[in-house]
């Protein structure tokens, strides 16, 4: 096989203004260090972000071993959430909503990722800032390794250096580096890049140490996170696009990786890990038809987010209600593919990156579209974008292929520069620091202040929270900080800022009629999907409370439900809250036979505000 420079022969003589200005630096052997420094500086604002959501599970495990909210089974198994009925019952008492399906299971085998959190709590257990710094250093190291990968496969070219910079400053990586419990993506990606480098050296030089190092690196990547299987996308692309051996030899070269993946999957499943019944996730092996449907729906949104500035979470939410959004994504990607076609025809290295990019979309579609799923897709995307920008720069400077001088190519070039070289580095520090959104707004979606000690013997009932699942963070935080915990937390609905009508039937019974219906929260599909519909007359029995579905809407979601408590609603064992004006306040159940209409809300520049007034009949 040719050496790295020969793989990118088309780019061995880069030109253009961009090349003349940046070539002395961007092609230097120490450029990966510069890229790592840029990655570190842009994600450093996350150091002051504190902990959030799943981060508290690790803190509870290590620092609060006697807490009733301690969920994880061992120090090397910090990513198991719904692996047993007992765990599910515990989660329900911690605030998982009553509509949570009893059939769901969710457990991820990430022992090496868990080990990084063990290190956090062994060395700096009371310093979230150092935990964030730990993640930032992982991101800097990963960015440097990806830069080395580009340089090895594309040669010391402007395109390789530019690709490394584009990848390091990609704002979609901000929440991966900023969210401590998302750290697992980074070492998994680093080991995946090491695997590709070792495979390249083995196939080029034929030395057996590299042939051993590559499969070991793949296994390490998988033990950090399941997403490490995306490494195989680029391994397959390498053999498909960059090798000219007979096909049996190419397939034989991939056999060690297939053996690693097969052995890992058998152990993974044998230990009871996996996803069952979680609607926003899908296992390609156990649900191939459903995965095919999800791939068709999710793949264009993931690719659109990587190439443009359309966040996955936003486009996915819009596409569910507006199919035109999906068609717009497909149309946009078709135009981009048409413009890139000349580059793909001329450059086999470009074909390699494009193939790896497309194949890496497959494992990403196993989860609902999120920007943090783009870390693997971005490897191919940024390399392809960099090669394209260099070609356009050459065309602008002087005689070159007319395809890169035409208006569509120049427009796409300017759009890529604006999105990935100008806007991305400006947004990335914000996304790293606010990985779950503006903290002030999040505080308005859940009770932020600790409860008084008397709550320990009470069930805390929140009638109309905007998002029911968000309430669980309060319980986790209170537990992690050693604050008093309610005996149970019950959320009656996810209001989505819409009014909720509450009617008192007798001493122990309420009927709720949310204007938006039940199971309408953004996160509600995490715990019950359309394949497990609720039916009229169906009862859900929980400790201290029974829920009965009394009415369905046209979309088969409940619009009315009856809540029967085991004690009178005024009993001291119950404490009631309602959400109003962006805060939680005491709720007083109406008298028997009366009903009250809790107002909705709206989101403005200064947070959440009430929309309508509380009315009683």
Describe the structure.
- The chain contains 21 helices and 16 strands.
- The protein folds into two domains: about 5-50 and about 115-435, no CATH class; about 440-615, no CATH class.
- The strands form four sheets. Strands 8-9-10-7-6-13-16 form a seven-stranded antiparallel beta sheet, with no helix packed on it. A four-stranded mixed beta sheet has the order 5-4-11-12, covered by helices on one side. It has a three-stranded antiparallel beta sheet with strand order 1-2-3.
- The protein has helices spanning about 5, 15-25, 30-45, 55-65, 85-95, 110-125, 130-155, 160-170, 175-180, 185-205, 210-225, 230-240, 245-270, 290-305, 310-320, 325-345, 350-365, 375-395, 405-435, 440-445, 470-480, and strands spanning about 80, 105, 275, 460, 490, 500-505, 510-515, 540, 545-550, 560-565, 575-580, 585, 595-600, 600-605, 605-610, 615.
- The chain is about 50% helix and about 10% strand.
Output the keywords.
single chain, 617 residues, alpha+beta, 2 domains, seven-stranded antiparallel β-sheet, four-stranded mixed β-sheet, 50% helix, disordered N terminus
Concise description?
The protein is an alpha+beta fold.
Question: Which structural category do the helix and sheet elements fall into?
Answer: alpha+beta
What amount of the residues lies in strands?
5-15%
Quaternary structure annotation: single chain
Rg computed from alpha carbons, rounded to a whole number of angstroms: 26 Å
- The number of domains is 2
Given the C-alpha coordinates, what overall shape results?
A: elongated
Mean pLDDT: 90
């Amino acid at each position: 096989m040719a050496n790295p420079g020969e793989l990118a022969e088309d780019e061995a003589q880069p030109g253009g203004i961009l090349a003349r200005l940046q070539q002395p630096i961007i092609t230097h052997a120490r450029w990966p260090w510069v890229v790592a420094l840029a990655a570190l500086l842009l994600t450093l604002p996350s150091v002051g972000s504190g902990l959030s959501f799943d981060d508290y599970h690790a803190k509870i495990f290590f620092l609060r071993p006697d807490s009733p909210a301690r969920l994880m089974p061992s120090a090397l198994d910090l990513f198991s959430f719904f692996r047993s009925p007992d765990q599910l019952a515990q989660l329900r008492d911690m605030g998982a909503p009553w509509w949570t399906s009893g059939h769901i299971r969710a457990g991820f085998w990430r022992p090496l990722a868990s080990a990084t959190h063990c290190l956090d709590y062994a060395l700096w257990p009371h310093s979230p800032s150092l935990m964030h710094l730990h993640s930032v250093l992982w991101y800097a190291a990963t960015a440097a390794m990806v830069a080395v990968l580009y340089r090895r496969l594309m040669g010391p070219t402007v395109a390789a250096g530019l690709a490394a910079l584009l990848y390091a400053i990609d704002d979609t990586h901000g929440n991966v580096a900023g969210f401590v419990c998302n750290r697992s993506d980074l070492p998994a990606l680093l080991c995946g890049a090491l695997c590709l480098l070792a495979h390249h050296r083995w196939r080029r030089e034929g030395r057996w140490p590299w042939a051993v190092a590559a499969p070991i690196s793949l296994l390490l990547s998988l033990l950090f996170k399941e997403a490490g299987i995306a490494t195989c996308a680029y391994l397959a692309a390498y053999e498909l696009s960059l090798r000219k051996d007979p096909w049996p030899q190419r397939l034989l070269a991939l056999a060690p990786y297939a053996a690693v993946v097969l052995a890992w999957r058998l152990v993974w499943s044998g230990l009871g890990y996996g996803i069952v019944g979680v609607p926003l996730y899908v296992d390609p092996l156990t649900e191939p038809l459903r995965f095919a449907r999800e791939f068709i729906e999710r793949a264009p949104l993931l690719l659109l987010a990587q190439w443009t500035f359309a966040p996955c979470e936003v486009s996915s939410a819009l596409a569910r209600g507006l199919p035109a959004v999906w068609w717009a994504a497909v149309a946009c990607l078709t135009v981009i593919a048409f413009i890139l076609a000349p580059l793909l025809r001329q450059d086999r290295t470009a074909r390699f990156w494009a193939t790896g990019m497309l194949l890496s979309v497959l494992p990403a579609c196993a989860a609902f579209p999120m920007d943090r799923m783009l870390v693997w897709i971005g490897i191919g995307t940024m390399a392809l974008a960099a090669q394209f920008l260099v070609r356009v720069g050459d065309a602008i400077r002087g005689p070159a292929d007319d395809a890169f001088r035409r208006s569509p190519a120049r427009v796409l070039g300017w759009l890529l520069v604006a999105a990935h070289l100008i806007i991305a580095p400006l947004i990335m520090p914000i996304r790293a620091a606010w990985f779950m959104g503006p903290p002030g707004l999040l505080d308005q979606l859940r009770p932020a202040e600790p409860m008084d000690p008397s709550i320990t013997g009470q069930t805390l009932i929140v009638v109309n929270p905007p998002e029911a699942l968000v309430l669980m963070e309060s319980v986790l935080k209170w537990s992690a900080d050693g604050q008093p915990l309610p005996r149970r937390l019950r959320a009656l609905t996810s209001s989505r800022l819409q009014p909720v009508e509450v009617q008192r039937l007798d001493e122990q019974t309420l009927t709720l009629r949310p204007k938006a219906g039940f199971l309408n929260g953004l996160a509600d599909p995490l715990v019950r999907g359309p394949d497990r519909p609720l039916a009229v007359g169906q009862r859900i029995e929980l400790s201290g409370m029974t829920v009965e579905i009394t009415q369905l809407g046209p979309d088969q979601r409940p619009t009315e439900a009856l809540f029967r408590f085991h004690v009178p609603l005024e009993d001291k064992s119950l404490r009631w809250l309602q959400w109003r004006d962006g805060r939680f306040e005491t709720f007083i159940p109406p008298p028997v036979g009366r009903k009250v209409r809790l107002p909705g809300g709206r989101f403005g520049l200064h947070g959440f505000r009430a929309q309508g007034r509380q009315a009683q009949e």
